[in-house]
Specification:
This protein is an alpha/beta fold and 281 residues long. Helices cover 41% and strands 27% of the residues.
């Protein structure tokens, strides 16, 4: 790995720890506020604990990292020998994380390029991996940013939720869309579009919605080389079944990751989430 460019992302990328270690990627944690407790995602609150809290209808909100946390991360990278940092984050439509990183970058001891990927979960993770691989091949700041931006352009995310209530409460989807998706007990399918969550289709039952999710992902993947990530919250059996079917249906599949989302994304989707990220090679 290049010692000259450090790659920073945030905890909503949900990259496997071994992958982050192998590529030298640092993740800055977002915060989940559970009642009167502020807990760091990934270290102080698990997805399972979050799911239980939501099921008990406890108050759950999320907040961005402070600029000071980013500043410390950039200083540490410089002290470790980095001559520049590429800092890649979830969509600015969802969080103030990008803005906090921008503020910190102004005072960093080395050049920092902050990128709003417009992505979240492994859609963001794939962008961070692309940037890391570019630096490993000898690229500098510009090459790492271009690699991440290219990966974002060929990455799509689709997901099913049992209810739109959590997204509505958190302001991540409009009230009109939430009402539309909830009408007649319809089960919603959503997509990530231009950094925002948009209602894609309405399906009558959960089983039909998940079957339709599989069809959409298989069609989007096509026959070319792709990586896929399947995400869930408190729905491991659903996730494994979807992953197995995609292994059979996607001829160009290179890597397939199955993981539970963390507490920050889980707080806005609720238990039962099933999602898939498709990223072309």
């Amino acid at each position: 790995m290049s010692r000259h460019v450090a790659i920073v992302t945030d905890s909503t990328a949900y990259l496997p720890p071994r992958t982050m270690e192998r590529h030298g990627i640092t993740a800055v944690p977002l915060t989940v506020v559970l009642g009167d407790q502020a807990l760091e995602e990934g270290t102080e609150i698990s997805a399972r604990s979050l799911a239980v809290a939501l099921q008990k209808r406890r108050s759950v909100t999320t907040s961005r990292p402070s600029p000071e946390v980013f500043a410390e991360t950039y200083r540490a990278a410089a002290e470790a020998g980095a001559t520049g940092v590429v800092s890649l984050h979830l969509s600015a439509e969802f969080s103030g994380t990008y803005d906090a990183a921008l503020l910190a970058a102004k005072e960093a001891p080395v050049p920092v390029r902050v990128v709003d990927t417009g992505m979240v979960a492994m859609a963001l993770g794939f962008c961070a991996l692309a940037a890391a691989e570019a630096t490993e091949a000898g690229g500098g700041l510009d090459e790492a940013v271009l690699a991440a931006e290219r990966r974002a352009r060929v990455t799509s995310a689709y997901f099913y939720v049992d209810t739109l209530d959590y997204l509505r409460r958190g302001g991540r989807i409009g009230a009109a869309q939430a009402l539309f998706g909830s009408a007649l007990a319809v089960k919603p399918l959503l997509q990530l579009d231009d950094g925002r969550i948009e209602l894609l289709e309405k399906v009558r039952t959960a089983s039909r919605a998940i079957a339709r999710l599989e069809e959409i992902v298989a069609e989007k993947a096509g026959a070319g080389a792709v990586d896929i990530a399947v995400h869930h919250l408190a729905a491991p059996e659903r996730a494994e079944r979807l992953a197995e079917r995609l292994r059979e249906r996607v001829p160009g599949l290179v890597d397939l990751h199955v993981s539970e989302v963390g507490a920050v994304i889980g707080a806005h989707t609720g238990p039962g989430l099933l999602g898939a990220v498709i990223s072309a090679r």
